[in-house]
Design brief:
The chain starts with a helix and ends with a helix. It is an all-alpha fold and about 90 residues long. It is elongated, with a radius of gyration of 28 Å. The chain contains three helices and no strands.
Length: about 90
């Protein structure tokens, strides 16, 4: 498929979707359209809330790692591993 043909095919698909949307809007009443918008809007916030919870969990985990890695025992272990790897 050539580039020009792909663009034409995409434009035809977009026009078809636009016509279908216009028929739907013209045939439905305002309360029906608002109910549809409200139903779709309810899912939009869920993804944002899930991302926020995952971000908070990651920050908490990073904080725990910082505390653990700053401890003298872990620091000694890591230093020993590096010295052994370098043959010192």
């Amino acid at each position: 498929m050539t580039m020009g043909r792909a663009v034409t095919h995409h434009a035809a698909g977009t026009a078809r979707v636009r016509r279908a949307w216009q028929r739907t809007v013209a045939s439905s009443s305002l309360p029906q359209r608002l109910r549809g918008l409200n139903a779709r809007a309810g899912d939009a916030g869920m993804a944002t809330a899930e991302y926020a919870i995952a971000t908070l969990a990651a920050v908490g985990f990073a904080g725990v790692l910082v505390v653990v890695l700053k401890g003298s025992e872990v620091k000694g272990l890591l230093t020993g591993i590096v010295r052994q790897a370098l043959g010192a």
